[in-house]
Amino acid sequence: MLEVKKIWLYIQKNTLLSLKQSTSTLFHFVFYSFAFTYLLISAFVLSSDAPLTFSGIIYALTIPVYYYLIFVVLTVVLIPILWSKKLVALILLPKFLMDMMLIADYFIFDIYRFHIDMLFINMLLHDFKGIGISIWLVLLSLVVYSIIFLINFVIYKNIKRLPKLRLKWVNLAVFLVFIIGQGIHIVGYEYKTPSVIRYTPYLPYYAPLTSSSLMDKLKAKYPSVFPQQDNSVSDGINSILSSSSTGGLLNYPINPLTCPTPELDAASQVKNLKQKQSQPNKPNVLIFVMESWRQDVMDKDVSPHIFNLAQQASQFNNHYSGGSVTVNGLFSLLYGLHPTYRDYMTSTPYQNQSLLTKTLAQQGYDIDVYTSSNLDRFALKAMFFGKINDEHYVNPLNEQVYINDKVAVDALIKDLKTPTTKPWFKFVFLSATHHNYQYPKKHKIFTPVESNPEAFLFDKHMDGKPLFNDYKNSVHYLDSLFGDVWSVMKQTNMVQDTLTIVTSDHGEEFNDDNKGYWGHGSNFTKYQTAVPLIVKKPQQSEPERVTELTGHIDIVPTILQTTINCQNPTTDYSSGFNLFDLPEQREGLIISSYKDKAYLIDEQIYATGLNIQSYSVEDINKENEHFNYKKLSQLKEQESSLLNH
């Protein structure tokens, strides 16, 4: 028995020694070999052509550390596999793959202006000719990859000759560098500093930290160091706003917009003279957006006021948001661009303000916003509305969401009742329909409702009807607020002079496909991405039903062509079409969540996560095995049509 114990202790001792030696070898290799990877990532950083400032340079130097820490975490995960001396050399494989992907992505991004994802790899394997890569480039790649592997191999073979490091302190120092860099990004992101935030679109799978809550605390505690942003806009920002060249990657718009003022007929001239107007009558624009409102919850029972509007308007019954989440849904709505462009706009938000609001303001429109959502997140306020004074930006946040919605709508109604001689653009975004759904008790008309709105977190396959009823009650409430707005517009005779658009940022799912999906942002089926769209043109009284595929990207070109007669082809500034001049066929749409994107083609979803999925937009259980690589390539081209190559 004693001998067995000695043998067991010997095995344990040698196993632990082997594990310690292997772990030391692993992490020393990761650290030393990352010097080469640092150079690869620096190539992405240098290609961004960001303005040079002290904080920007310090931040740029810390960016590669982000990828180093990711690889350190991966190495920790692999320790149970690579614990022995014989297996530890396998660390070369993931390190080589990482370096190989970085080099490939650098050249793909330089040529096509998108980063490699799993769907692109799938296309490469199944539609090589369609990608357009020559055999000579393949041969050159093989040579380059051989050199990369050789570099890593040489480092690994000589790892024992390199200085031994106290890895605990080295990695702690590296982590502190990471924190410093991400701290600079948090501040730079808050203040829209181009020398800091411009790098993000150039880097593959890079998601730097942001924190509006942290910045709010710092502004409150150290106002001299972190001052509140002044809506009057600084001279530095004004110089950006007045710049005729966007620089960097973006070429937005491709050509300046040409939106001529229409000639006045005699009757209009007399009308303008009586009203003391110096410009021709232009239709007002109202965009009314309800959070998380899915397409099949627009009917006479749940949303009666909007349903009645649809009886004298155009209703688009095959309409999709550009996002399964708010940020990308609103981006596609107010830019008319695929959501994959958002990172480029975010990197210089004032410079790349939405052409919709920028052009309408130039045409003499008053721009007004009424929302209970904090659009300062993700730089949306700056991107969508640029320089906007507080008097035109109503954003109550102090009470419960449904109360804030009422406050915002009351402000809108007050403004509608205030006479003006200028045309206006009013954007309304209400949030009571976001989980957890809120409404006054009198709107509790669909029962039973779920007593615990978080219950699905513990039972993903629970009955969704009670929570769905709760959600429908919140839709009914916001519909009543729209009814109040519409009633005032009728009283003030604005209905016939206004282009009215009613829609949502994305949908909402309640385990509809029995796969355990709830809310939004988790897949791209119709429940999370198909939304209502009702458009009432000025003077329109007859209903119209449109069944062709349409998307949020079609709304901007519709407004610009319908209201101010912009003559440019939509491809100059948008990924979409005029809703009233749709093509016979379109390639499809691109939809994004926070973590993923998908291509909607012929009612099939092609999702681009680590696990490539293709399924019916109608039902996630219906898998698609036949990829339309031609249309996928065409949509990918649209992702870079407004980028400098």
Automatic annotation (TrEMBL):
Domain of life of the organism encoding this protein: Bacteria
Residue ranges constituting the Inner membrane protein YejM N-terminal domain according to the UniProt record: 18-259
Pfam families xref list: DUF3413 (PF11893), Sulfatase (PF00884)
Stretches assigned to the Sulfatase N-terminal domain: 283-562
Transmembrane parts of this sequence: 26-45, 65-84, 96-115, 135-155, 167-189
Keywords, sorted A to Z: Membrane, Transmembrane, Transmembrane helix
Signal peptide: none
PANTHER family on file: SULFATASE (PTHR43751), SULFATASE N-TERMINAL DOMAIN-CONTAINING PROTEIN (PTHR43751:SF3)
Protein name: Sulfatase N-terminal domain-containing protein
Organism: Psychrosphaera saromensis
